[in-house]
Amino acid sequence: MATEDSYVPNAFDAEFDNFWDTVSCYAANTFPFEERCAFVAKAKDCNRSTNVLPYMRIMACDLNCVNEFEQVIFLTLFMGLCYEILVLLIHVCNKYYSPALKAVSRFLRMNEHVAGVTLLAFGNSSADLFSNLASVNANVPVFANSLAAALFVSMVSGGLICYMSPFKMNAYESVRDILFLIFGSMLLQYFLASSEHVSETSFIVMFLVYIFYILVNVVDVYLIRRALKTTNAQIDALLVGEMTPEKRKRLSELERNQAIYSRDMEVEIFERTNSGPNINKIRYTTLRMGRSTRISIDKKATRNVLHNRALGRNWGLFKDLFRVLRPINREKWRKGNIIKRAFMLTKIPAVILCCIYIPLVDYELDKHGWNKLLNCIQVMLNPAMSIMAIKALLSSRGNSLWYVAMAEESIYAVYSLPITMPIAVFMFIQSRTDVPPFYHSVFTVMNLTGSMFMIFICATEIDKVLEVIGHILKVEDDFMGATVKACTGSLGPLIANVAMALHGYPKMAYASAIGGPFFTVVMSASTVMHVKNLVGLPVSEANQTGNYGLNAFIFLNLGLFSTLLWSTTLGFFARRSVGIFSIVFYCIYLLFAILIHRKIIHSFSSDLPVTAAFGDI
């Protein structure tokens, strides 16, 4: 008989030694309510899985949940928090992110389509890539979740764009992008199905496919501009000398080509003529698509509209600051009903937070959004807050929460002040309050990066709240990833695309609704699976498609083929009816997923082979 001195540790002992390092935080839901606080306090996954707030710890320890009724009450409060985060997300996309994208696209001389498939698509989809890389060790079907997210963005986001802002699509570019997305999803599915493990060659091929896609879009714009330049030269040559019938016929052909080539040459800054559809009128759905005239903004006029050399450099300095920090517009409050006033009250935290953290550059506004004192403060505050938050998120390894680590990492924020403080002092001395300085456009960088950071935090936090609720309610992980998390994780792209469409850029928004899913499937999914291979985790068709992956794959391709069908049938006019069709199509996908989850129907995936515990079957 073995004694205590002769005992040799085995694999079970090692597993128990690392129990608190490896156990899932959601395992606390299997314990009695009174024991959950002690569990979440010891489990390191409860710290690692925290984005902003530790919901499991809040419920078990801070709120001291002791029964099912209190649990339902607290989950309802979490849903209210989701609404507040959603309000913040909408405010950031509408007021900060969209103007920044327009300014950057204008500076880079992009047209709407290229800006949509590059800047807007990458800005919308990169957050999903980074969050998946951060949780690369998690046992989740990456390919299935990427397909579900791509289906949501292409159908729901694209459908809302068509419904809220009907437009004439870019025929060739739209067909090309849809075919690229179909090809990318099928190619990655082929790589998964053809071998037991995804090789490095597969990742390189997928990477080259995405690079080729971007090059095709960029070269296409270059060739169009070159053709326009040649056409203009030919028209000028024909106008010299006597006009003959042959010249008139040739001139008519060249002018038609000129009109085609001149369409959407570069992104213009347009006035916002409306705030979107009146959803209270059902007749809006059946109205014909009207022709809307977009009026370009005179940047010089909006820049100098309040300029007065007779006033001092700092005239109205504090008045401007208090005006912009005021979260509620008095005129809108006076005219609003009780529902609008309630919504204004819920926006107060979002308005104040964004106003302090994100510099505003919007060429549609007077002075382009310039506020001398606030912008001087933001030059120091924006980099310091970003550095401190990002460093705290990266340095917390499970022993503590990120905001506890922030106190230790605050020194890195102080290190940025010797650089930013002299810049702020120079700005304060050199600039005026009534006109933005010549370097004001540089603030677009902080506007864009700050907006993207806020969108990433908001989208991932909503996703985390619903993940916690799903585990508490004992909802299957695969089902959550294919339905709820696919929607919540894509709220950022959805709101950003709709905001761009309502700002007068539906072509850019719809290009992002196709280009973003292409990035998600081709780059994000393949990159995460390649990293899984590098760290030694198994990657195969079975564990990457799960029970709902093939369902999402088939619906995605059916949706894209139906988009090709209605676009060519309707002459590439994106009507409100096709927007409703796309959203209903996604609802059918959700219905299939629910029926599969309830085991009423079988999924498209194959059943796992049955093996005997002893002997042969």
From TrEMBL:
One Pfam family this sequence matches: Na_Ca_ex
Record's keyword annotation contains Transport: yes
Record has rRNA processing as a keyword: no
Molecular function GO terms recorded: calcium:sodium antiporter activity
Record domain Sodium/calcium exchanger membrane region: where: 86-218, 448-594
Name recorded for this polypeptide: Mitochondrial sodium/calcium exchanger protein isoform X1
Membrane-spanning residues: 72-93, 114-136, 142-163, 175-192, 204-224, 342-360, 411-431, 437-459, 479-502, 508-528, 548-566, 578-596
Main location: membrane
Subcellular locations according to the entry: Membrane
Domain of life: Eukaryota
Coiled coil: none
GO BP terms: intracellular calcium ion homeostasis
Membrane topology summary: Multi-pass membrane protein
A single Gene Ontology CC term: membrane
Organism: Drosophila mauritiana
Keywords: Antiport, Calcium, Calcium transport, Ion transport, Membrane, Transmembrane, Transmembrane helix, Transport
